[in-house]
UniProtKB/TrEMBL annotation:
Protein name: Cysteine--tRNA ligase
Organism this protein belongs to: bioreactor metagenome
Keyword Nucleotide-binding: no
Keyword hit for Coiled coil: yes
Coiled-coil stretches noted in the UniProt entry, renumbered to this chain: 136-163
Keywords: Coiled coil, Ligase
Length: 189
């Protein structure tokens, strides 16, 4: 629990078929973190564009494929494969600015991940979590301060300084993403 976020451990266990031996290792858990982070990144992208808007409509065909996998000897590995397929289509709909379809995929993905107890944490809190990371030496306040310094440098057209701040943060395990709503950050996977 000190090295990995609790939900990463849950994802790792759920992604393995219950009849298969579970091979715990740091490498496998890091892969689980990367995989789980994909859902969180997708939800973050959606929320930046559309907020928390959900719809009552779910994609019935995808829900049925998920349910079929679960009915097949509780095949959670196959169910998670369906989740990744939904995530891929969801990201495509967000990128294409198809709000209606993105909302259906978002609601479907939210519903199905809830069944498995996944993506239960606040998106920003999970992505900024430093559980299992080396001591980076930077608090959230320090990161926010550096982001503000970078913003000020860009405003003053000091682009070399802004790039230097971005690289310094990246070297310390902090990834910056510039969006229309401003700069957001997360811990590197």
């Amino acid at each position: 629990m000190e090295k990995f976020h609790p939900e990463v451990i849950r994802y790792f266990i759920v992604s393995s078929h219950y009849r298969s031996p579970v091979n715990f290792s740091d490498v496998a858990l890091k892969e689980a973190k990367t995989a789980l982070s994909r859902f969180y990144h997708s939800f973050k992208a959606y929320q930046q564009v559309y907020g928390e808007k959900t719809v009552e409509t779910l994609d019935d065909a995808l829900v049925e494929r998920f349910n079929t996998a679960m009915r097949d000897d509780f095949n959670t590995a196959e169910a998670i494969a369906v989740l990744f397929e939904i995530n891929k289509e969801f990201n495509r709909a967000v990128k294409d600015e198809n709000q209606e379809q993105a909302a259906v995929y978002y609601s479907t993905l939210r519903h199905l991940t809830n069944i498995l107890g996944l993506v239960q944490y606040n998106v920003d809190d999970f992505l900024k979590s430093d559980i299992g990371q080396e001591a980076l030496g930077l608090s959230e306040e320090q990161i926010e301060d550096l982001i503000q310094q970078r913003k000020d440098a860009k405003k003053a057209k000091e682009f070399a300084k802004a790039d230097e701040i971005r690289q310094s943060l990246l070297d310390q395990g902090v990834v910056l993403e510039d969006t229309r709503q401003g700069t957001i950050w997360r811990r590197a996977d």
